[in-house]
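Sequence in, structure out. Go.
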Amino acid sequence: MITVTSLSVAYGAVQALRDVSFQAGAGQITAVLGANGAGKTTLLRTISGLVTPTQGRVDFGSTALVGRRAEEIARLGVGHVPEGRGVISEFTVEENLRLGSMFNKTPLAKGLAEQYELFPALGERRKQHAAKLSGGERQMLAMARALIAEPTVLLLDEPSLGLAPLVTAQLMKTIKDLCEKKKLTVILVEQNAVTALRISSHAVVLNLGRVVADDDASVIGEDENLRQYYLGMSS
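Output:
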């Protein structure tokens, strides 16, 4: 479980997050929704230790994360797949996965085999450079690189960005299946609210750095005011 309490982040005079509090339950997908500039990416970067908050705390179970280095947080079991895929184009598929396995407690061969079973397309292209992969395959590689470290928390930042609808649907199914199979705590930042709410148990809506809604995903999806003013969803 991830518990965020009274979290605030500022970039100079710009307040990116303002007193944000919510819980992401173990074994569940929590969607974080809102327009561009709402603070979604900053939230994930703060949880993973890439950004230091001005106030508040983030707890992973009983472990406080604020003040720890990003690599220490990763070793604790928090995987982060950033927006824009984040793979190294000059590396092959397998080299990218080897990089992700630095924090893996199981043998490398076993970790690679598990990811190739989960994402068969990556196994077929293991010797290809990431630059030659399609957008969907690059997203698979970014997820596999995070998963090979065996996280118990997975932070996903706009995984469907730039993907075709069919590829997005397949990716979302994979995320949901992973959550159920591995009992992952998933925090999913998504611009596509419909897609995110469909696979999530819980949802948080941000607007200008503040939480404006925090409820079951089904409740938020049916709220006409939230749909119209914060999620860009038609009636």
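Check: Residues 228 and 234 are 6 Å apart (CA to CA). The first strand starts at residue 2 and ends at 11.
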